[in-house]
Amino acid sequence: MMESWVRFSAQSQAKERVFRAAQYACTLLGYTLQKGGARPDLLNTIKQLEAHMSLTRKLMRLGNSAEALEAAKRTVHLSDCVLRLCITVAHLNRAMYFACDNVLWAGKTGLLPELDQNKWSQRSFRYYLFALILNLTRDAYEIRLLMERESRSSSAKSLISSPSPLTPSPENGGEFPLTPSPSSVPSPLPALPMISARLNKQLQLLITVLRNNPPLLLDLLKNLCDVFIPLDRLGLYPTGSGFVGACGLASSVLSILTIVHPWLKLKP
User: Fold this and answer.
1) H helix count then E strand count, the chain
2) Are 218 and 255 in contact (CB under 8 A)?
């Protein structure tokens, strides 16, 4: 019974992501056609198709609020306090976002004709933005942990592969001095080259960590694409329908990848 429900939930989620990709593809197409001077009737057709896709997605997400609450119950027992806080509160914000989305669906279908749709839309996007900020905070925290682990691992390997020349050996008779001579002490580097070298080392660590952790890389890219959508809708950072459509389409494709290949989904 449980396996059947999980399979059904995964299929529903995959369908919703396909409709999401189609919706934002319509947004991007409408922007491109408008810039190209397309006919008004064609633009209206694209906008109607986009609205139908959005309404269909709202219908498919009617049960997602309860699923987000169940996910929050599971993550509240995580041992890492930072991950526990970020993931649990993100799930709670997602639950509120889906609840507002359900109210909006009722308003658009005529079940709540007096509903202030603009007010509820702004409210839902605020919850969506909070959830994405927490997701990005979680990604940054995991990246920092992995970078520290990679740095320690690299330092340990370099110490093992290249022992200190001060270590006595049969060749030197164990008579090396404990401190190097003043002439062998390197002169301190200028501040700017040291900062540049440190930044380059951190960048190399970041690239290594992301290359070795595809689920974390995909989650980071998806959240970065998604965050521009509520920022634009709330008027905090307007980017235009073309950019929003491109970001929504890209994040939808990345979400579909994590559904087709479950090992690419970041856990927990």
Assistant:
1) 8, 0
2) no
